[in-house]
Design a protein that fits this description.
two-stranded antiparallel ribbon; 2 strands; 59% helix
Length: 108
């Protein structure tokens, strides 16, 4: 992975947004991260990472009004840009290559 490699938390957030699809807003992202990783993600850290990823051009967001979302408050939804897929694919390839052949050593 090159200089543009994702940090672990950024990687997890992008994968979470990819998994959630159209339902990726801050609360659902935090909940899914908690459920999938088994670690409590600090909401403030998620907000900071979302802004950073959007500034890098890896995410886009849209704000839905309460009338659009059916919620009592506006919601900001996030989606991956095409530029986000390349570092995710690169990281996946790299990790799969590193894992190759290690299963016997790690299986109990």
């Amino acid at each position: 992975m090159g200089r543009s490699a994702l940090g672990e938390f950024e990687h997890q957030i992008l994968l979470t947004i990819l998994r959630l699809g159209k339902e990726a807003y801050s609360v659902s992202i935090v909940s899914e991260l908690d459920a999938r990783t088994g670690r409590e993600a600090a909401t403030a850290a998620v907000y900071i990472a979302l802004r950073r990823l959007e500034a890098k051009g890896l995410l886009v967001s849209r704000l839905e009004s309460p009338e659009e979302s059916g919620e009592p408050y506006p919601r900001r939804y996030f989606a991956l840009t095409d530029a986000a897929l390349d570092p995710l694919k690169e990281a996946r390839r790299s990790y799969l290559s590193l894992w190759e052949g290690l299963e016997p050593q790690l299986d109990d």
